[in-house]
TrEMBL record, chains A, B, C, D:
Protein name, entry field: PaaI family thioesterase
Gene3D superfamilies in UniProt: Hotdog Thioesterase
Family label: Belongs to the thioesterase PaaI family.
PANTHER family reported for this sequence: ACYL-COENZYME A THIOESTERASE 13, THIOESTERASE SUPERFAMILY MEMBER-RELATED
Keywords, sorted A to Z: Hydrolase
Thioesterase domain segment(s): 44-119
Alphabetized InterPro entries for the sequence: ACOT13, HotDog_dom_sf, PAAI_dom, Thioestr_dom
Cross-referenced Pfam families: 4HBT
Amino acid sequence: MYDRIKESFDKQGLMKTLNAKLVSVEKGEVKISSEFSEALTQQHGFFHAGVATSIVDNACGYAALTMMPEDMEVLSVEFKINFIKPAKTDKLIAIGKVLQSGRTLTICEGYVYDSSEEKLISKMTATMIAVKK
Amino acid sequence: MYDRIKESFDKQGLMKTLNAKLVSVEKGEVKISSEFSEALTQQHGFFHAGVATSIVDNACGYAALTMMPEDMEVLSVEFKINFIKPAKTDKLIAIGKVLQSGRTLTICEGYVYDSSEEKLISKMTATMIAVKK
Amino acid sequence: MYDRIKESFDKQGLMKTLNAKLVSVEKGEVKISSEFSEALTQQHGFFHAGVATSIVDNACGYAALTMMPEDMEVLSVEFKINFIKPAKTDKLIAIGKVLQSGRTLTICEGYVYDSSEEKLISKMTATMIAVKK
Amino acid sequence: MYDRIKESFDKQGLMKTLNAKLVSVEKGEVKISSEFSEALTQQHGFFHAGVATSIVDNACGYAALTMMPEDMEVLSVEFKINFIKPAKTDKLIAIGKVLQSGRTLTICEGYVYDSSEEKLISKMTATMIAVKK
């Protein structure tokens, strides 16, 4: 399961650009981190919301994928994200968790924390769809 | 108005990383583009959804800012985005438009198109908040 | 097309309870109204947000249904709604419009206006799914 | 705290119309139920999604209100809701929980269960705003 997701993850140019690492893969839960750099900032020098959003969208997508048969791929249908605290940290930790898994659609909850995993920075709810490879 | 937004835009490390350009600024409407590169891809080699999301979030935020007094800044409270078509294009064009502007909150609609501005790739609705600088 | 939707609409107990009427049905666009009564209020005596939400969800769902084959039904996957102005009016007018129609999923935009159809009260984006009857 | 919310709840004509009861009020968490009747149905005879949405929006709003000073009121800015399972039950139980409470904005998570409180029917994320009475 890890290998299947790692292979897809490594093909994503953006994940490399965002200093993102695939931290862990469990059935229904995936964790991705992003190391801070000046290339990832908004106008005040903190992490741009787009970085948090990109990695937690991926974490949700891959969490959904852990519930799907081997011949399926996952696409984001839509998501909503609330920005709760400023992303002042040296590393973002994004966790995607499956809330409900169906044959076609999977609903995931996504959380973005600071490096201590104690401060909740953003909260996402995402709808994912399974498509034939 | 353009200068105020250009100055903020240029401070965003992520916008440079995403090959993003501030295309136009009008009262209530801002356009931002992103040129394709392999550093911005998902696993199939197209633009990652995170790129579209990041630039249209910014376009919405700056559109909101055009309605706010000079001593205010804008923050994204939350947004929802639907992914409608694959982002197969050499340039993404994101347009943020103010739907309703209030003293505290501003609601924006965001659109991401391909380089022809004819194919709608993503649609966002965002809630922005004005905060004192 | 009108008959197909009118038949489904009339089976919804809640639509009667909300004084709702199916105003018009066109390909990709459906309009539903709700007449004010004290049974539909929030604590200040205006229309409850739940009334606006219920009729615009239905308007979006039926708008999606106008794009689907006869043997399909429509279900709401999810929606997001922004509340823009207080619902101070004697009649709510909800309009659902198809933004993008696919074989499985349809994305709709929903608008709730006051009785003059000039004041925008709420704005929805909804994801609908086609299911076999 | 209960009295403050019960008084507001009882002024809502729609809550009576939806057979809704204020079940419990704790700091940061409010529970509201709705008893099934044919006046609350969609076209298949189950609870209409609009009923679930209306009571969980209220549960989230009142949960937010428990965190606010006495001279403030709460309004829904926006919410997103996913419909996870059909609402086939004799009673809906909606629970609103504060995720993050700020001076102006409060983010809530809302859950709608069947009467056993074991089957998750819908999941909401809502943004609430505090306004002076």
